[in-house]
Amino acid sequence: MNDNMPVLHALHMSKICQFLDQCHPEFTVIMDGTPCFAEAECVMIRVVHKRTGRIHEFVVHLGLYSESLDGATIAEHVSETLTRSDTEEIRGLGLKLKHWKCTAIDRAGTNKRAMDIVEADHGVSPFSAFCVSHGTAGCGKKGGMTIGKEVVKHLTSMVKFSLCKARVVFARAFKERARKTGSSPRWGVYHEMCEQINRIGLGNLRDDYVSVCAENNWSPSGANKFLTEIEEVHDFCVASVEIAALVDVGHPLVSETYICESKQPGAFTVWEGITKLRILYARGINSFNDGDMFVELKKRAEEAAAAMEESHLVSWFSHIWYDFYLLLLTSL
After folding, report:
1. CA separation for the pair 126, 132 (Å, rounded)
2. Mind listing the pLDDT tens digit for each residue in 159-218?
3. Which residues contact 71 (CB under 8 A, 6 or more apart)?
4. Of the candidates 177, 163, 230, which has an alpha carbon nearest to the alpha carbon of residue 202?
5. 194 contacts: CB under 8 Å, gap ≥ 6
6. Helices 189-200 and 147-158 meet at what angle, rounded to 10?
7. What are the backbone dihedrals phi and psi of residue 223, each rounded to the nearest 5 degrees, phi first?
8. Distance in angstroms (rounded) separating the CA atoms of residues 69 and 80
9. For residue 104, what pLDDT is reported?
10. pLDDT for 175
11. In sequence order, what DSSP letters do the residues of 146-213 get, joined into one string?
12. Is there a contact between 93 and 17 (Cβ–Cβ < 8 Å)?
């Protein structure tokens, strides 16, 4: 198998080179890496066919490495893949880097460093299109939540270990796995966690899950902190409304990011998604309300208003009863 790989790679690159002769010379580079069981590195190019006008995308470099790559190594790999070509064995595409128009990358420091080296060595300056998914992966973390933020944090701490008892209790109680952040970035993961909390409901989480864990000493730190945060009716209502607001407002941003990241050709879906978001936010808060986009917030706000009113009535009744009791004592 190892002996076949260089031959197959050469054939693959040869076919791509033949197709590139039918395309415009301008090209875009997409590069990314994934730290998982090994350091994975992938480089793709995107070109436009002269006759059909269609956008085509090819994987031109894919490698697994036992150690993390630095900017200089990535720059070397990308340069060799795009430029080097010999007659006996095609190892690169033989492209002219002056036609390199754009680079789609994430904001990792190694990728930025690699592009700085390539630009300095070859005198090119392609536009850098940074990946938007890394911004929305934490959508909501800076949403201005107060108690809601603490609730999400404590629930996350309870289920962060895959084999912990708290995760088993969660799955049994709600027939689904608890959302959690992992070692690798995922699109909209914070928003997904908030969506799950809102959908299940803070009251159900407290009664059917967190209280059970606290009583049995499973993930006790996170469980006890969670219960303390929403012990008061007011705090419970604030957390519920904050999380629902984040779910509603964050939904269009996260959903458009999924579309931008998964559909092709990317340049046009990204533009379309960004345009939608610009129009939506330019219209202001009414654009959400008119489009029935504050569904969860409205529901939780009504529940909070009812809970606060009930709490106020109980407090008022208790106060009146206590005054009446004192009046009886003083009259005896």
Report:
1. 18
2. 887 778 999 999 999 999 998 876 555 667 888 899 999 999 999 999 999 999 999 999
3. 109, 110, 111, 112, 113, 114, 116, 117
4. 230
5. 140, 148, 152, 243, 246, 247, 250
6. 100
7. -65, -45
8. 16
9. 87
10. 94
11. SHHHHHHHHHHHHS-STT-HHHHHHHHHHSSPPP---SS--TTHHHHHHHHHHHH-HHHHIIIIIHHH
12. yes
In angstroms, rounded to a whole number, what is the distance separating the alpha carbons of residues 31 and 29? Answer: 6
DSSP, collapsed to helix, strand or coil, labels residue 105 as strand
| DSSP SS3 for 319 | helix
Q: How far apart, in Å, are the Cα atoms of 129 and each of 31, 133, 260, 266, 284?
A: 11, 12, 13, 11, 27
Quote the CA–CA distance of 144 and 189 in Å, as a whole number.
Answer: 17
Residues of the chain with pLDDT under 70: 1-4, 34-38, 84-91, 132, 134-135, 182-187, 259-271, 273, 280-281, 284-292, 312-332
DSSP state of 100: E
Tokens of 273: 């998604």
Site of tokens 């519920």: 240
- Give every strand in the sheet of 127-130, ordered side by side: 55-65, 39-48, 27-35, 100-105, 127-130
pTM of the complete model: 0.66
pLDDT in tens, 44-68: 999 999 999 999 999 888 888 888 8
Show the tokens assigned to 122. Answer: 């070859």
DSSP class per residue in 24-66 = -S-EEEEEEEEESSSEEEEEEEEEEBTTT--EEEEEEEEEEES
